[in-house]
Amino acid sequence: TMDIISLRGGSPANFLDVGGSANVDQIKAAFEIITTDPAVKAILVNIFGGIMKCDIIAEGIVEASRSLDLKVPVIVRLEGTNVEEGKKILEDSGLELITANDLDDAAIKAVASIA
Q: Which among 1, 36, 95, 108 is least buried, having the fewest CB atoms inside 10 angstroms?
């Protein structure tokens, strides 16, 4: 994820892995950690796999975005278990989240969001 951001002209400030068994509160806590770094200008969430369920990630992103009043763009790429449910949660949230079809698309959108 960090390499492709660099390849697309960005400069990653941080990397955080929530692990395959994260819950909504842990995802929110991850956003709290990331947003304490003033070098973070955007948040790219890249989920690809079968262990972590995309709907749980999406619920955590929505909860974090609402409760933390995020001031940086959030770019989300979901692929894996419950991906359609996750995408629907993001879409129905009413938040200004930037969704991506794949990792390259996510990196391009992340770099563009802070240009």
A: 36
CA triplet 43, 68, 91: central angle to 5 degrees?
Answer: 65
pLDDT tens, 51-63?
889 999 999 999 9
**Contact (CB, 8 A) for 9 and 64:** no
Quick check: 73 and 97 in contact, CB under 8 A? no
CA distance 27 to 56: 9
Spatial neighbors of 15 by CB under 8 A, at least 6 apart, are 1, 2
User: pTM for this structure?
Assistant: 0.90
55 near 82, Cβ under 8 Å? yes
CB distance 47 to 80 below 8 Å: yes
State the burial class of residue 15 (Cβ atoms within 10 Å of its Cβ: 0-12, 13-18, 19+).
exposed
Contact 79, 109 (CB under 8 A): no
Do residues 70 and 97 make contact, with C-beta atoms less than 8 angstroms apart?
Answer: no
